[in-house]
Every structure is written in C-alpha cells, then in structure tokens.
C-alpha cells in the first residue's frame, strides 16, 4: 500500500501563508495541496515550490471530503482540541489529509465535522498559546513522513537536491455556473475592502496562486 499525504486549506485568512505552506508541503512529500473556498492567494514565500506541487480546488468542504474519501484517506484536523492526540505519538493508520484551519479562530465546527481524528503539537514553553499555521503544518507533516517511512531526499552540500522544474504542473478545479457567480461576488466584496490594493499598485510580491488554476 502506497502511503500519501494531502494538505487541505479552507478559507485561510493570511493569503501569503499558502506560499509557505506549499514550500513545506513539497519538502515533506505531500501529494497534493487542496484549496477549499477562496483561491485568490499569494504565492510569496514558496521559493518556486508551487511548480513541484499539484493543486486542487473545491468550493465546498463536502466536495473535498468526497474526493479524499474516494482515495481511502483519513482526514486529520490539526487543532488543540479535546480528544486530540499528540502528533509525536504518530497516531496514523493510512494515507492522510491534514486539514488546517483559520489562523485566528482555528478549525470551525463544519471543518471539525469532516475530520476522522485530530492531532495537536505539544508545547513546552509559556510564551504563546499556539503556533503559526505554516509552522504547525511543517511539524505535523514531518512527523507523518517519519511514520510513513518516506525516503529522505538526497543532499548536495548544505542543501537538499531540488528536482528539475516540471514543464507543466497539474492543476485541478471544479466549476459550476453557480460557483463562478459566488466567487465573482466574493472577489468584488474583497476588492471593496482593499484586499487587492497592492495588486493594483503593481506590487511584485502579489503573485496570486489563482494563476495556478488557469490553463495556459
């Protein structure tokens, strides 16, 4: 049985976090990064890793769950919650999709409903209540890779060897007329709140992951 891991991101608040999540995902052998809901994110911080990672988009958590379950995967919520298991105990059984919540509020009730189990990262210092979502994802994905026995990447000096950039990376998304209308309305609302100001001002860091879901 081939063990795989997935990362599921639902309406993450800080759009630049997706780029750094992609970097961690490629480092720890993630098969796909699944975006649910909003997909207008900034790839800043990915350091080119988005070229090596397939992305998939769904408009609803239920659609994402169906896709994951069709691949015989558990869904693991990363959350400091009652009943959550310490990630260092490696409570995994098979291929797993890790669901990461909003940075400020954590996993919502709807997100928790689709999870099969939860893990948390034990902390030993008293200075913070929780970790940044990208830091937490990196720790959890590393533990899963150790449990799954993923092969360590070759090293060259003080760096790991980076594969040749694929000519074309896979991007998958689901679209319906209704979902397109909803997304257009959401974009207008976000733009009204100044979300895209830096894009209009020509900020070179505004490399939106939305481009990953558009065919050339």
From TrEMBL:
It comes from the Eukaryota. GO terms for molecular function: RNA binding; RNA methyltransferase activity. Gene3D superfamilies: 3.40.1280.10. Pfam families: SpoU_methylase. Keywords: Methyltransferase, Transferase. GO terms for biological process: methylation; RNA processing. The keyword Transport does not apply. Residues 6-142 form the tRNA/rRNA methyltransferase SpoU type domain. This is tRNA/rRNA methyltransferase family protein. InterPro entries: Alpha/beta_knot_MTases, rRNA_Methyltransferase, SpoU_MeTrfase, tRNA_m1G_MTases_N.
